[in-house]
Amino acid sequence: MLKVWRTALLTAAIAFAAGALGVYTSLAFLADGHEPGHTSLDAAVHHELDLSADQERQIEEIEVRFAASKASLEADMRTATREIAATVSEDKAYTDRVRRSVDRFHMAMGELQHATILHVFEMRAALTPAQQSKFDEIVRKELLRSAEEAEPD
User: Fold this and answer.
1) 54 has a pLDDT exceeding 70
2) What is the C-alpha to C-alpha distance for residues 68 and 36, in angstroms, rounded to an integer?
3) CB 105 within 8 A of CB 20
């Protein structure tokens, strides 16, 4: 019976990690554009919206602030993931300690999601109404693309 519980716990931990990675990957593609051959939101803003010099400066400042915040939140997620690994390995059951470790990860991931969406709206605010309309369509397409990529085959 103990072996069944260990196997179930390990399976749950792997499923949790895979799901979290999917959410994180969608957010990363929305904000960064490190995927080869893919235009990120930030790159699209610079290349498709015909920004003025002042808008370029404003958006660059926004991106620098977000990059620092994002790096910190990603570090929090990595720390929380290491904590989950340690508590699962040590407790070998779904204890309060494991639950708190998972909650810390969810908190960090949620904060990253909020920061990313705030980043999107902060960039949008620097645009003209005509640019905002194009921007909104880029964001909509990017989010739908990310959702479709996350669907199992």
Assistant:
1) yes
2) 23
3) yes
If one compares 16 and 73, the residue with the highest pLDDT of the two is 73
Q: What CATH number was assigned to the domain covering residues 2-150?
A: 1.20.120.1490
Mark out the alpha helices in 32-128 (DSSP H runs).
41-48, 53-91, 96-125
Over the stretch 62-121, which tens digit does the pLDDT of each residue have? 989 999 999 999 999 999 999 999 999 999 999 999 999 999 999 999 999 999 999 999
> Rounded to two decimals, what is the model's pTM?
0.68
- Domains of the chain, by residue range, sit at 2-150
Residue-wise pLDDT for 68-77, tens only, equals 999 999 999 9
CA 83, CA 87: separation in Å to the nearest integer?
A: 6
Direct distance between the N- and C-terminal alpha carbons of the chain, in angstroms, rounded to an integer: 34
Q: Which residues contact 51 (CB under 8 A, 6 or more apart)?
A: 45, 59, 127, 131
Radius of gyration of the chain, Cα coordinates, nearest whole angstrom = 19
- Rounded distance, CA 36 to CA 50, Å? 23
CA pair distance 132, 123, nearest whole angstrom: 9
Structural contact between residues 139 and 131, judged by C-beta atoms closer than 8 angstroms? no
What values do phi and psi take at 13, rounded to 5? -65, -40
